């Protein structure tokens, strides 16, 4: 089977040609075609009975959720994000942005491997130390991970750039600031 798509350039050219022809030749009827260029793209169409043969490999993912004190085990296809698959199976895991930019869904890999090409929230250095983001992670083998404290991972990622460490709460400065209001 082939999917037939009109050429984008030819579609644009067709509209321009018809518009010009209408201006100078009012007898050209509406719906007339000026070009016939088409792309023929072969596509494979699967029926529900064929889908079993075209299945994507799945892997068992075990998540040790330290914050909640529970362990989740679920199957994730190689072509789906771990967080998305967990949610579709009614498993609640920590997350925030869903775009790989923060550290809310950060985990430490205990065993197995995953692919995370869009994980911007952790550096290459942290990735090499076994950190990963579930929201943009695809399993490539059976996987066992442990959730991390978001602040700890954020500190590992950016802490060296912020002076001498985390900022401690200064109640006196807070009182002064609140007194001005």
From TrEMBL:
Whether Signal counts among this entry's keywords is no
Tell me where in this chain the 2Fe-2S ferredoxin-type domain is found.
Answer: 59-151
Q: What is its subcellular localisation?
A: Plastid, Chloroplast
Q: How is the cofactor bound?
A: Binds 1 [2Fe-2S] cluster.
The protein's required cofactors: [2Fe-2S] cluster
Q: Which CDD domains does this UniProt record tie to the protein? A: fer2
Q: Give UniProt keywords alphabetically.
A: 2Fe-2S, Chloroplast, Electron transport, Iron, Iron-sulfur, Metal-binding, Plastid, Transport
Matching InterPro entries, A to Z? 2Fe-2S_ferredoxin-like_sf, 2Fe-2S_ferredoxin-type, Beta-grasp_dom_sf, Fd_pln
Q: Which SUPFAM superfamilies does this entry report, sorted A to Z? A: 2Fe-2S ferredoxin-like
The entry's family comment says: Belongs to the 2Fe2S plant-type ferredoxin family.
Output the NCBIfam families linked to this UniProt entry: fdx_plant
- Cited function: Ferredoxins are iron-sulfur proteins that transfer electrons in a wide variety of metabolic reactions.
This chain's protein is named: Ferredoxin
Which source organism does the UniProt entry give? Camelina sativa (False flax)
List the gene name.
LOC104757624
């Amino acid at each position: 089977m082939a999917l037939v798509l009109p050429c984008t350039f030819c579609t644009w050219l067709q509209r321009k040609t018809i518009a010009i022809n209408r201006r100078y030749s009012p007898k050209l009827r509406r719906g007339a075609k000026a070009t016939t260029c088409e792309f023929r793209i072969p596509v494979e169409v699967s029926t529900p009975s064929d889908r079993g043969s075209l299945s994507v490999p799945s892997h068992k993912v075990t998540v040790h959720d330290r914050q909640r004190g529970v362990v989740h085990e679920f199957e994730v296809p190689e072509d789906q994000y771990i967080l998305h698959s967990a949610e579709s199976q009614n498993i609640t895991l920590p997350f925030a942005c869903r775009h790989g930019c923060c550290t809310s869904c950060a985990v430490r890999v205990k065993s197995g491997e995953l692919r995370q090409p869009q994980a911007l929230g952790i550096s290459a250095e942290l990735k090499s130390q076994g950190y990963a983001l579930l929201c943009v992670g695809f399993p490539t083998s059976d996987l066992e991970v442990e959730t991390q404290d978001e602040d700890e991972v954020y500190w590992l990622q950016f802490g060296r750039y912020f002076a001498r460490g985390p900022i401690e709460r200064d109640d006196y400065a807070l009182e002064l600031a609140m007194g001005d209001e």
